[in-house]
Amino acid sequence: MTKKQGMRSALMALAFAGGLMATAPAYAEGTLTISSPQDPGSWDPVDTFLVNWSSVATNIYDGLTYRGPDAKLVPGLASSWEEFDGGTRIRFHLREGVTFQNGEPFNAEAVKFTFDRLMGDEGKKGPQRSNYAAIKSVEVIDENTVDMHLTQPDPVLLTKLAGYGAMIVPPKYIAEKGEDYFNAHPIGTGPFKMVSYEPKVGLTLEAYADHWGGAPKLSTIQYRFISEPSTAVAELQAGNVDLVIPPTIPIGMIPTIEEDENIDIVTTVSPTVYALRFNTGNGITADEKVRKAMIYGVDRQAIIDSILGGQAAPIASFQGELSFGNDPSMKPLPYDPAKAQALLKEAGVAPGTKIQIDIRGNDATFNEVAQAVASYLQVIGLNATIKPYETNVLLNDIIPAGKTGAMFQQSWGGWTLDYDNTAYFMYHTGEKWNPYDSDPELDKLLESQRAITDRAKREEILQSIAHYTADRALEMPLYNLNAIFGVSKRVKNFTPVPDSRLRLTEVTVD
């Protein structure tokens, strides 16, 4: 490093320390600066489902298992495991000598505490609990061994233990500091420790040198919460951030970004799918004929070609090609405006009927998609208006409370790469993302596959769920979008991951 570079790095560090996080360039040696579109609001694993939580928290926490960019499941905090009693008991052998970032020891009691908490009153407050519903109890065998007792076998459980609600948390720290403090000052066993957090502005992680997997190669990671996509891209081009994570990069800006010799656009096939889900509880979309008419009335392939620039693929159900349960022979309803108009007439919907489409206000690309959908619906006689919401408001208030318009944006990462993780949350009665519909037959299908260990039989049921929900037209399936990262060329050893769960231990910066 030259004397001039050293002085610049020192000045940048001082500027950051002085509270100028929003404008401080990212040139401090060993520091990676990331633009994330959303502050999840809580860093507690039981509180969230958000991809933008996991893109940070995968560096703070560890689970008993771990799944990397290659989608293969490997040991995490559990060095090995074995199944007993027909898959209803799993014995985990835990790594020895592991500590949380505050020095508290990781052991069997921490594992039991984590899952007692997840399945108890605290977990009940958040959206993760039903994902782990098969867990009946965790039994401590000795300091480094636990038995997880299940009510029934769960063929996806080992993958679920690699992320989100199953991240292991420190019992003594939470008991001493309290739940509210933990939300903003998380402690895990992961390779980076959160050292500062300013809500809606950003946060800083520092390397945890005593991590059981070895110290990370970066010293610091700074996250800036930049909700406006054009601002995030401008900061990337200016060198003020090193990495912009999905779903921020507007498709229309990719050619311009690619012209910048200091930036790479890196993409990979993703499990993330987009749909416009229907209010099946009231209004004209309570009628299945109307829902199907609206699907027939929108040329989704044209939207993919004209707006998404080849970075997406059409979907027939609410899952992509990586999803276990996807039926590749299943075809989307074709674009047929004449059939759409006939169905609307049959349903008694008057021309010019107004409908509302609710979307996330900071998603520039989807805003264009929604405008196109509204234009197509106008052609078949529906007067569609678009209502943008701040993302957290839409996700935490409007949708769960059943206060949407006729259609609402739903994007879903499906991070387990298993359709159950999508379908159960979207369609089972009483789930947060299913505020309108209750279908006993569909509930039975969803529940039945969760206990089946026969992979072929389970896939058959999942595919039948996909056909059933498509027949009922519970959403307008739109597309499976690639994961698109904007990356400064000073970033080395970066591997794009399909589910945005970035583990940054091997990344370096020039």
From TrEMBL:
Similarity-based family: Belongs to the bacterial solute-binding protein 5 family.
User: Where on the tree of life does the source sit, at the highest rank?
Assistant: Bacteria
What the entry lists under InterPro entries is as follows:
Peptide/Ni-bd, SBP_5, SBP_5_dom
Alphabetical list of CDD domains matching this protein: PBP2_NikA_DppA_OppA_like (cd00995)
State the organism of origin.
Thalassospira xiamenensis
Annotated signal peptide: 1-28
- Which keywords does this Swiss-Prot/TrEMBL entry list? Signal
Domain Solute-binding protein family, first and last residues per copy: 72-432
Q: Where in the cell is it found?
A: Periplasm
What name does this protein carry?
Answer: Peptide ABC transporter substrate-binding protein
